[in-house]
Structure formats: C-alpha cells, structure tokens
Amino acid sequence: MGRVYAILGDIHANIDALNVVLEDARAQGVTNFVSVGDVVGYNAAPAECIRVVRDELKCPVVRGNHDHYVSYLDTSLADFHPAAAQVVEWTRSQLSEEDMQWLHDLPLQKPIMGFMLVHSTLDMPDRWGYVFDNQQAEANFNYQRTPLCFHGHTHVPIIYAYTPGGVVHYEPCDFKLELGQRLFINVGSVGQPRDGDPRASYVIYDMDSRFIRFRRLEYDVTAAQARCLEAGLPERCAERLGVGR
Ligand code: ZN
Questions:
Q1: CATH: 3.40.50.10440, 1.10.3720.10, 3.60.21.10, 3.30.420.10. Which one for 4-243?
Q2: Helix, strand, or coil here: 227?
Q3: Where exactly are the structural domains of the chain?
Q4: If 0-12 CB within 10 Å is exposed, 13-18 middle and 19+ buried, where does residue 142 land?
Q5: What is the side-by-side order of every strand in the sheet holding 211-217?
Q6: Ligand 1 centre and the CA of 63: distance in Å?
Q7: What's the rounded Cα separation, in Å, for the pair 19 and 127?
Q8: How far is ligand 1, taken at its centre, from the CA of residue 216, in Å?
Q9: pLDDT digits (tens, 9 = 90+) for 80-107
Q10: What is the pLDDT of residues 55-69, one digit of tens each?
Q11: 180: CA distance to ligand 1 center in Å?
Q12: Which run of H or of E encompasses 62?
C-alpha cells in the first residue's frame, strides 16, 4: 500500500484540536504524518503537543517562528505582538530542556518523498514572510524545485499554482495533482484557524492516487479556551479560537 500523508500545520499547543485531527486522519487511511511547524505558541498544551508529534507520530517537522522564538533564547521579542510574546515566555516555562532542544534543532525546510515542507517560504525561510498574494508566492516558486511544497504560517488554507502566465491561486478543494503542476499549498491551521472558520484544518496527500484533500473538523473549542484561561494566557488567545481569527 502506498503512503498517505497528513500534513499538519500551526498546531499551536492546541491538544484538543490535534487529537480530533489525528482521529480523523487515521479514519481516512493516513499512514504518515508530517508538519509544517509552529507546534507551540498561543495555546495551553505545548508539552503535550510536542510529545504527540515527536514521540507518538515520530513526525518530520520544520521550525516555525513560534518554535524558533521559544527555543532561541537570544531572539528579541520586540517585533512580536505583546500577547504572542507573553505566550512565548509562558511556553518556555512549560517545556523541559529536551523539548527546548528539539524545537531548537528543527530544520527550516525539509524534503520528504518528492515534496517539500517549509513554515513560511522557501526563498527566505528564516525571515518568516507571510504569503497572502500571488506575488509573494512567486518568490517562493523561484526556490521550489519539487512539484509540491506545503507551508503554513498565515493559518489560512489556500493553493498557489505556478503557471506559464504567472502565479494563480485557488480556494481549498479536493483535486488530483497532474503531471507538470507546481503547487505551493497552505494547509491551514490545526490549532488556531484564521479564515473565519474555527474548525481545525489539515491536508491529506495520497501519493498513489495523487489526490490532495483539505479537511475541516469541529473540535471542543470550549475545552481549548478553558485551558488557555486556566493557564493565565491572554484572553484574546481563547477568544480567537471561537471565531477562527
Ligand atoms: Zn502560526
């Protein structure tokens, strides 16, 4: 049987969302898990999410900006939103030295069986640039040597395609990857969706059939919010889970 990948992004310490995604992925026949990073940040279960991703799934992961800020103690948080910076500090207090080292050592990009993983963009993966339009996606394609690259960072699922006429984009949909296509796909966020839909997002890629599917799943948002508030995280972190922003 061929490999069926689940591509998980921006889990952001949301164990309630992650558990529902894993259950769905297994029911969908997923055999392998990979992640485009930001395992921690914003929510209240960073150690649990690291344990699942690293130990249970043995999941290849690339480093996201939150993973970076948490584990590189010399990075200035001045450019970071104060609420996000507060969670970075709190997250550090929750992690073991081993967890910190694991985050620290994650690569910025990673090739997997013929496709790439990156958190932000392949052109400058350490700059954490946001891809919100075709032009920003074009810079990535200059460095994309594989037909497929999955990314995250904006928490908004979308498909960018490189065509002879320039870069175009499509809303998330289920489709078959055709030969010659070059796609830069944002898998959306497991733990903090920002496209106005609070349901957890991830993508399935079946290597045999070449089918790509976007999944959205309801999970216990109230439980995740309660964890945030109980941990003393900024109220905004809890609020945004309810609205998907
Ligand atoms: Zn993120």
A1: 3.60.21.10
A2: helix
A3: 4-243
A4: exposed
A5: 32-35, 4-8, 200-206, 211-217, 175-176
A6: 11
A7: 30
A8: 17
A9: 888 889 999 999 999 999 999 999 999 9
A10: 999 999 999 999 999
A11: 30
A12: none
